[in-house]
Amino acid sequence: MLKVQNISFSYTKNKPVLNDFNFTLKKGEHLCVMGESGCGKSTLLKIIYGLLDVDKGTIFWKENEVLGPKEHLVPGMDFFKYVAQDFDLMPYISVSENIKKHLSRFYPEESEKRTQELLEVIEMKAFKNTKVKNLSGGQKQRVAIARALAKEPELLLLDEPFGQIDNFKKNALRRRLFAYLKEKNIACIVATHDKNDALSFADKLLIIRNHKILAYNSPKEIYNSPKEKYVAALFDDVNEITINGKTHLLYPHQIKVVEKSKEKATITNAYFKGSYWLIEAEFDNQKVFFNRKTNLEVKTQINLLFDVNLSK
Ligand SMILES: Nc1ncnc2c1ncn2[C@@H]1O[C@H](COP(=O)(O)OP(=O)(O)OP(=O)(O)O)[C@@H](O)[C@H]1O
After folding, report:
1. How many angstroms is it from 45 CA to the middle of ligand 1?
2. Most buried by CB count within 10 Å: which residue of 33, 98, 101, 178?
3. Cβ–ligand 1 contact at 52 (below 6 Å)
4. 225-235: per-residue pLDDT in tens?
5. Which residues pair with 7 in a beta bridge?
6. pTM given for the model
């Protein structure tokens, strides 16, 4: 459905931001774009929406070519919706009115029903008559998502969609929103720093590094076989450690404290994480991080077991 072919883009000459990007997205499919700050996630979303002119390459949605502002006077494609980081809502009208602005005036009943449905998705029923200027940043973000969904788009582009929303609300909203998109078969591309957006909800992940696509695969495949530390570090406090002359990438849950082993380590720090502790230790002049149910005192000597079978 979406076909991104050989896309290259730069804001200034000879300084590429995206170099030769190729990928596809099917109807209803959900893609997460990840990578370090400044790698070009937002830029990619803007290009797909048609806000920027590419240097090279083409983008098609079905048989329609996505054109940039040079060739398309009103920027943005009709069948896409884009929620930017600086969502521009109308501050002096209510939450409901902001959503309704994007629905047909000719079918008031249908429009009211749809507004109610979307207020439920974003858990903002209680604020339906509140003026947007009186909302918090996170609440505005949720209204911006509902507004983008008002006229069911075929593809929704979300830039850090839950960045301003607290954890409690975020988890519930995520489950509700992504289930809603699947139910309506709306394709979605999310630019995010948050592994929780990616691991549980994306069909595919696309990881950008040094202006290129470094990985493009299912979340499970990318998480379990990260090509390099950069990729694994997007998900957890990954360890890159040399054991018997061989370097391994290991997530903290792949290192265990055991009664006996040849791998001796000394505890150097411990961080309370709620349901577990993240323990820092020194092993063979290297820093290692692992998870443990209970705390360990600094300077304690321990024996470690590295579950290298799980890593490459
Ligand atoms: N309008 C612009 N003009 C020139 N350079 C820009 C412009 N917008 C972004 N850039 C640069 O392009 C690169 C990619 O920026 P982009 O905002 O796409 O990154 P990002 O991955 O979304 O970052 P973040 O995760 O911090 O939001 C950065 O180096 C940024 O400084």
Report:
1. 11
2. 33
3. no
4. 998 999 999 99
5. 21
6. 0.90
